[in-house]
């Protein structure tokens, strides 16, 4: 079951930007795409663990600043292929707050 927690004010997340937040021990990268979509993924590159919130966002793809691995912020998966990937968290916007769902990871079977 998802438990949604407040992350940041929605108005603090500009189009094309990212923010790092730590929510109940989860390191989360929040992204707002140029078209206004809001997404949350684990803030830890699967290659050598650089923060993805410091990467370059183009469309819905973030490119890690260290060695250039790319992940789709909507899914946490690479634009091509399946692996490696990071956890993608569900997001809601309510009353100018970005809320992030911190339920069990989909792979944990409680999704
Ligand atoms: S740490 Fe991200 S590509 Fe190497």
The number of distinct β-strands equals: 10
Can you say what the CATH homologous superfamily is? Answer: Rieske [2Fe-2S] iron-sulphur domain
Total count of helical runs of at least 4 residues: 0
Count of domain modules: 1
- The chain-level structural class is mainly beta
**Rough shape?**
globular
Bound molecules: FE2/S2 (inorganic) cluster
Strand order of the largest sheet: 2-3-4-8
CATH class: Mainly Beta
Write down the CATH topology. Answer: Rieske Iron-sulfur Protein
Beta-strand share of residues: 35-45%
The CATH architecture assignment turns out to be: 3-layer Sandwich
Cα radius of gyration in angstroms: 13 Å
H/E series, N to C?
EEEEEEEEEE
The profile of the biggest β sheet is: 4 strands, antiparallel
Proportion in helices: under 10%
Structural description of this entry:
The protein has 111 residues and is mostly beta strands. It has a single domain (4-103), classed as Rieske Iron-sulfur Protein (3-layer Sandwich). Helix content is 0%, strand content 41%. It has no helices and 10 strands. The strands form 3 sheets. Strands 2-3-4-8 form a 4-stranded antiparallel β-sheet, with no helix packed on it. The chain has a 3-stranded antiparallel β-sheet with strand order 1-10-9, with no helix packed on it. A 3-stranded antiparallel β-sheet has the order 5-6-7, with no helix packed on it. The radius of gyration is 13 Å and the shape is globular. The N and C termini lie close together (7 Å). 23% of the residues are buried. The model has no long low-confidence stretch (mean pLDDT 93). The structure holds FE2/S2 (inorganic) cluster. Residues 45, 47-48, 50, 64, 66-69 line the site of FE2/S2 (inorganic) cluster. FE2/S2 (inorganic) cluster (FES) binds next to loops.
């Amino acid at each position: 079951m998802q438990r949604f927690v407040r992350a940041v004010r929605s108005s603090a997340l500009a189009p094309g930007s990212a923010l790092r937040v730590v929510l109940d021990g989860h390191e989360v990268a929040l992204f707002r795409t140029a078209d206004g979509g809001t997404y949350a993924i684990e803030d830890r590159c699967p290659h050598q663990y650089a923060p993805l919130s410091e990467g370059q966002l183009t469309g819905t793809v973030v490119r890690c600043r260290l060695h250039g691995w790319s992940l789709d912020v909507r899914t946490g998966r690479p634009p091509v292929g399946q692996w490696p990937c990071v956890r993608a968290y569900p997001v809601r916007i309510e009353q100018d707050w970005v809320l992030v769902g911190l339920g069990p990871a989909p792979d944990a079977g409680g999704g």
